[in-house]
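Aim 2 progress update. The chain analyzed this quarter is reproduced below.
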Amino acid sequence: MTETLQTPIRELTTGSTFAGRYQVIEELGKGGMGNIYKVIDKEINAKIALKLIRPDIAADESTIARFRRELKVARDISHKNICRMYDLGKEAGAYYITMEYVPGEDLKSMIRMSGQLSAGFVINIGKQICEGLAEAHRLGVVHRDLKPGNIIIDKEGNVRIMDFGIARSLKAKAITGEGMIIGTPEYMSPEQVEGKEADQRSDIYSLGVILYEMATGRIPFEGDTPLSIAVKQKTETPPSPKRINNQIPEDLSRIILKCMEKDRGKRYQSVQQLLIELNRAKIEKRGLDKVGEAGTAPSIAVLPFADLSPEKDQDYFCDGIAEEIINSLTKIEKLKVASGSSAFQFKGKGHDIHEIGEKLKVQTVLEGSVRKAGSRLRISAQLVNVADGYHIWSEKYDCEMKDIFVIQDEIALTIADKLKVRLLSEEREGLVKRHTENIEAYNLYLKGRYFWSKRTQKSFRRAIEFFEQAIGEDPSFGLAYSGLADTYNLLGFYSVLPGKEAFPKAKQAALKALEIDSSIAEAYSSLAFAQLYYDWDWEGAHKNFKSAIEYGPGYATAHHWYAEYLVLVGQMEEAIGEGKQALEFDPFSLVINTLLGWPFHYSGRYDQAIERYQRTLELDPNFMTPHFFLGLTFVEKAMYKEALAEFNKAKVLFGDSALMDAAIGHAYARWGKTDEVKKILAELEQISKQRHVPFYYLAAIYADIGDRDQAFRWLEKCLEERDMWLAFLRVDPIWSDLRPDPRFSELLNKMGLIN
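Predicted structure tokens:
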């Protein structure tokens, strides 16, 4: 019988299942060994990374045998700065390696995007790499292929070294003719070039090259071929890093060059020695290098400009200028920008700059003022270093109202320059991009955003008026349509308008904004929000949230609403990460702080949810939303008195609300208080004949008292009315008793969900 040879697969498809247990989420990148994917390991319900090895590499049995031996050792390395290696497997004729999934950005991309990095950042990253290498070397494992592409930096600035146990396993290649080498020519030590055995000092040489590239923005040796680069590693002395970048301290330049000594006996003999030197390195502690010390990008808070006009009637305009500068700066991926809602917490309160910097976790603050007389403006702006209170830059502008766009562009570009942020061409275009040349339309838009941010029924109505007037002045003003979409979304979310009326209008306005300008982050976010809560278009919402984050990486609302999406589809850990990202940009946002309790509540970790909601209430005990969700959590904990207290507080704060009445009925039903439940059900059914009632919680009451038929009757009404709360159906613990019923699975299927 002839054996059929199976052609190994070369790549995986998003959404497919591989090896019976790995569901592919997305491709993370391509490398010399093959493609790497983010997958869900369905057996343990966790995200991991899977590297599909190229067939030509896997075809060599000796290579695969080495992989197995090396991975046995690599799996023993457990350290916060090292990516854990899991296993080597084979499926459909292809070999693959599984490892820990580490979200973040590789150091190579970071250097490519930013060029020369600050001395503090270089030292911080270098120290973390040393700590990871020290543990590996202690166990007798040498990396052998250390390079920026193998170093991931997560959102908190933590380093992870990748691919331990792989480099040694790869079949060595002869480049110089003198021996067999393993590694990447740009980063390999002279002894590796000569085909000699690598040891811990070889990793130190490679780390020296990495530090060199971070500090100077370029590798020390370049060439047309791998051979020419390899020869230079053996024979040439690199130019001093300080000669290329005179901003780095002498100590750091000296350390880098010692790492790169040709004779390994002259290098640091252990990473512990190198770590001591990096800790001793003297860098300037004042000014912007402190940004690098924290291992984070430069950061800024833009405060609302003070109104110095005689009539004191330019409040909306002053806030609007600050918001527009914030929106421009958030287009810069390497700049952390505190959101307007957090920065505006300090409006008119007389806080000092140091306090603002500490609370918003930023290194710089922009403050300014506006004086308007007729059509003339005087705008003052100053950029202040939080560390010492010194002005980094200040300027006064006397101009006509029609020149406001030019002034805003100049301020944003100057900030990027003074913070030493290297702009990509598309980022520069985003900074100076104008959505309208019509000053009157722009003014009306600023007024719309001013009232939208107040979050009241009355202010939402005023916002719509101003956005519609702005569109009337300039029908091609995309941002005005985006503002209109945001307003209708919240009118639907807060049940001020029925969802069937509000969300379609939000979608229509968002689509119009994107038709005018396909790069408006706010419009993508608004469209995704409506798709999530009204259309239950999970794929479309995911795609558009990702687009919102791509076009506005610092736009806190996009991260916030995307975190809500992740909760509703059951990805709780990822939701926590995304919520923290939103909070990083907007630390004082009460709604984002509340959102961070959702993943805990909807995954049954009720004590952690309670802690998060209570922390939000410490910021503002009069904010309704955490009271409501805290009540829901208390119900699940069978703490019914506490739940009723929270629902009643929420009702007082929110006003007359059928939602709160239904929530109170839910608590009574779980408690077994039959008389109170009957009374509330009668009231709600009467109210439903006159105005909107959230059928979702009405259904919950019937489920609580064991009347499944009535519960499903009201859930079907939710489906007909497209009740936004139905988006919670898959994860909400309220429905634990109904889940085994086939009708529940039918509901989920109708919504495009799986049980």
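The longest strand covers residues 364-373. The CA atoms of residues 306 and 369 lie 4 Å apart. These observations will guide the mutagenesis experiments scheduled for the next reporting period.
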